[in-house]
Amino acid sequence: MLDTPDPVARTLRAAPPDQLAEAADSAIRSLLGASRTDVFIADYRISGLWPVLDPELPDAGFLDCQGVAQRCFSSQRPVRDAADDGRCRLYLPLTVWGERLGVLMIELPDGPGPGVEERAADIAGDLAVALRAADRETDRYRRVRRRERLTMAAEMQWELLPGRSVTHETFHLAGQLEPAYTVGGDHFDWSLDGDTLTVTVLNGDGTGLSASLLTAVAVNAMRNARRSEGGLVEQAELASDTLYYQHRGRRHVATLLLELDVRTGRIRAVDAGSPHVLRLRGGTVEPIGLDQQLPLGMFAEARYDLQEFTLAPGDRLFVVSDGVWAATPAGQEPYGDRAMARAMRSTRLQPAAEAVGTVMRELHAYHADTDLRDDAVVVCLDWHGVRGRDAG
């Protein structure tokens, strides 16, 4: 006998893309007897969680729940918050394939009975998938996500991103762009296909809209080669030729291309004058020594060579752009000399999605909380290994 269709999933599929929060609220009240719900979405800088149902007028209840919601978002675990009057609030992460979107709050008139929390978690999963899909059809959730107006360059960069994090049984991967609302040419991209994870990090030449346009061409050229089953060398060479014949060597993009075999931890790399890659193993941070080749677009028909290295289970890789490595506010030594390694070591117990935020916050603190003068990208890759198999 066929299972009965999930009423919440069915309701979400039938709802207009801009009305998912309202549709979920109605279904949750009916199914779980909830007295209230809220959907909170993380902003571009992941500095706070913001309500969808009433973004202009957050009430005292919203303000009171912020700490609990943030704990749920950071831990990626359900959190219960019981009130003195017997009411109970459930906070559940809204996450799709490791992409952290926000938090669903469900307020119940009394403590949840058997199976309610598990059912609520399923609802949160359905809602997260629907929200991710709806971003292509409505601007409502993007408006909540932005706390100030993006520049045109930043608008293009955020639209080009694959996401901000992804999880797999063998790895966790996350990235962050700063300054979030004015970023220009720095960027990251990734794709998982079977046992192969491809990651690229770009340090675009120039600033503003021209840098964003240059990076967009490079990213889409590499995607074109990758989606045509081209390897890293073909991806780099197609992007380099495309940029060169458009700009005749006047513009170029320093790029690191990585290809991880998720089963073995073996990484192939093309270092095209690239951002910096560092490995955190235990408590030690050390750079991965790669031979730098020409940035993409510098010369006609440039050719690239592969290099290889292997991760051990538990290794963490950081890839950072020059805006992170070479940051030198107020005449201090570059952030990459010592302060960055301290920040990276402090992330050992954090998941990748929290680790990129920690490194970025420490970078802002190094700048004494003034605006960053250059684009900054941090990408963090954790390889856990395959159970029962050693990397070899």
TrEMBL record:
SUPFAM superfamilies: PP2C-like. Keywords: Hydrolase. InterPro entries: Bact_Sigma-Reg, PPM-type-like_dom_sf, PPM-type_phosphatase-like_dom. Residues 168-383 form the PPM-type phosphatase domain. The keyword Signal does not apply. The keyword Cytoplasm does not apply. Pfam families: SpoIIE. One of its GO terms (molecular function) is phosphatase activity. This is Serine/threonine-protein phosphatase. It comes from Micromonospora costi.
